[in-house]
Amino acid sequence: MTNTLDESNRQPAQWYECSGFQRDLLLGIAAHDHLNERPYGVALQEWLDARYPTTVVRSRVYHNLGELVDMGLIEPMQSPDRKTGYRLTNAGKASLAAHSRFVNALDLSELLPARDGA
Fold first, then answer.
1. ∠ at Cα 111 (110, 112), nearest 5°?
2. How far is CA 101 from CA 9, 11, 95, 106, in A?
3. Could you list the pLDDT tens digit for every one of the 118 residues in the chain?
4. Cβ neighbours of residue 50 under 8 Å, at least 6 residues apart?
5. Among 9, 20, 28, 117, whose CB has the most other CB atoms within 10 angstroms?
6. Residues in CB range of 87: below 8 A, 6 or more apart
7. Is 25 helix (H, G, I), strand (E, B) or coil?
8. C-alpha to C-alpha distance for 30 and 22, rounded to whole angstroms
9. CB neighbours of 99 closer than 8 A, spacing ≥ 6?
10. May I ask the CATH class of domain 13-103?
11. Angle, nearest 10°, between helix axes 20-34 and 90-105?
12. Which of 111, 99, 78, 101 is nearest to 20 (CA)?
């Protein structure tokens, strides 16, 4: 049995170079893509606002999107309505997929709260 937590299955270094906020942006882009919605800056800000305890500043979103572009994890795409959308690059997809495999390999059942009567 292969240990998915060993060095042969480690995540790309780029994942660890990202801040938590940048990782959340990557997840937001993937979530929008999964729902066949276009992930542009304001939509990602709204997605994060729905999850964060405080309001997300728009300039923070765009600054971090630019950094993710520079890291090669996402790429901008222009649309006819002049809104810049974003999509994961192959490196971005690989980073998210590796993270997913890593998390799925962990037995987190011990972290679940106990049920009443169980």
1. 95
2. 9, 9, 10, 9
3. 455 555 445 566 788 899 999 999 999 999 999 999 999 999 999 999 999 999 999 999 999 999 999 999 999 998 888 889 999 999 999 999 988 888 888 877 777 787 765 5
4. none
5. 28
6. 29, 33, 39, 74, 75, 77
7. helix
8. 12
9. 11, 15, 23
10. mainly alpha
11. 100
12. 99
Give this prediction's pTM: 0.82
Cβ(99)–Cβ(91) below 8 Å:
no
Six token digits for residue 23 = 């990782």
> How open is the CA angle 108-111-115, to the nearest 5 degrees?
120
List the structure tokens of 98: 């590796």
Per DSSP, the residues of 68-104 read HHHTTSEEEEE-TTSPEEEEE-HHHHHHHHHHHHHHH
**Identity of residue 113:** P
